[in-house]
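Dear colleagues,

As part of the handover before I leave the project, I'm documenting each prediction I ran so the next person doesn't have to rerun anything. This entry is a single chain, and its sequence is reproduced below.
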Amino acid sequence: MVAREQLDPHPGRFRAAPERSRRIARPLCLVARVRSTDEELLDRIGRRMFARDEVGADLAAAMSRPRGDGDRVTMVAFHRALADPAAVPASGPLADFFAVVEDTPDWVDPVLLERGGRALRRMGRTLDDVLLTLSLIGGYRFGGPADLLVATGGLTGGTAMRRLGETTEWARAVIAPGGLRRDGEGWRLTVHVRAMHALVDRRFETNGRWDVGHWGLPVNQADQAATLGLFSSTGLLGARALGWLVTPAESHAVMHLWRYTGWLMGVDEDWLFTTEREQNHFLHHVLLVQDDVTPAGPALAGALVDGQRAMASSPWRGELRRRHVLGLLRWFLGREALRDLGLPDGPLRSLPWTVPPTVLRNLVLSGLVARTRRGRRALERAGDAWTRDELGRRFAGARSGVAALPD
């Protein structure tokens, strides 16, 4: 491990591209109505690039013990405990981990979780488009997490669409009916991902493959809290930009759902926000401390954009999917972001020609169809069906499932 006292308070990437960061953060500054920069919050964001999920780290240490060690936690034992609470041992590192994740906070409201999931499922393809372009690819404009994904082989080359499918499958499970109950698939996958993040953090920090002094810990609290915001307030912001009308009650429920998901994932509780404005205020400051784009960004973005061709039934349909994604990127992020990510920014290739009909369609669906109970349920069923079909295309016939590290 890197001795914490040998590190500066902030990693080298902290506020490494201030002018660029301010320019990118300006729209969110307006949305969140940020009147002044909170320097104390910026400092905390930088410092927590050196902070980890300690509960997950303790489990990862136990899972990394040598074979034959009596305190070693095997992947088999972990998966059994995930599937069946009765399989959680009475004591030891595995018991300690599950004692935390099973101790649901008093503020969690199961009714709100269900309402938030239904609100997101109604969005169907619109939600997926936003998470792929604005949230996921938009995050590749900055060094750090993108470089870790490349180092793990996460979203480049032939694995790009499968890993994207795994992320989609996790999100689908989280927002499914009952998904965040102890016996729900979303709960199990979220806790599974938490353990995998802890293992990745431990392995990269200890094997010399990661520059902690420059990037911070491989999986750190600041990046995890920022990623959570990409699913919550950023997802809602992008849906509105595509014409989807989000009511205050739906916003409240969606933020509650992702707040609990973040808690299960091990994000620090003071960075689990209850309102979009609080979350966007935080994300604005996150943008202010980012580094410039690195070669990892174009590699990741290109793999996901070009991977759209392989998901279609014919070459011309594949090109339509690819141009649809490029158009959304230009709509959300602008031409500068396309250039940063090495993507085509010419009018014929990246013009957001699918946005106007999408906005019109979403205004009708969310403003008229969703006004009745029957209409809302129909939208939920349609959203579920679209997600199932899209997962089939992303996994391309291979067995689905969130990947696990070998035991």
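The chain has a mean pLDDT of 92. The longest helix spans residues 373-395.

All the best with the project,
I.
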